[in-house]
Amino acid sequence: MISGLVEEGHLVEEGHMAFQDHVVRAADEVVGAFPADGGIYAVTFRIDSVDQDPRLPYAAIGYTTEADATASAQQASGAWEARWSYAFFPKTGLEGVRSVGRDPDGAHAHRREAESAGLWYGDDDEPDDRPEQLVEWFYEVCVAAARHLHDSGRVVQVLGRPVPVILYDMFDPDAMFRLTSAANPAALVADFTADAPE
Fold it and tell me: Suppose 165 and one of 9, 43, 91, 96 were both cysteines; which one would form an S-S bond, judging by CB atoms 3.0 to 4.6 Å apart?
């Protein structure tokens, strides 16, 4: 949907996709500050928006550790849930280390590109399907940022080994599997996808 707009050049006219570039750079900075020896087994992107307004998206980027999964195992229904369900993520995985997208530069770039693509709407406008398109666009931006963390070698550089990036939206739980699969090499998320609850 939004990819078509990108391919047609609508989102690159002003700022060369500055919003996606901004999120990619910010994610790189956030992960670069993670503790190298903290037992991190997953980077987390909680995808959300201010007051559930798709015009105001952000990603809370954080992580979860082996110690967190071990502590969650006593309350979880099984090993998969303790390790991969965001319901058991620690504060660093839920609230993240830093939120990306609503800072002044990110917010400005997002609105400019949304307006350029005809996706912005006012409070008194009939939004049609623009809210859904804005959500899907932000999903794609987050997937691109996560893939960059792998492709650039940033995750391995900081943590010493590849770990998956788990993308989730608590208001659309099913999106977690689609987004995480799109954002990571298949082998890296095999455990995450193989035993996922139906």
Answer: 43
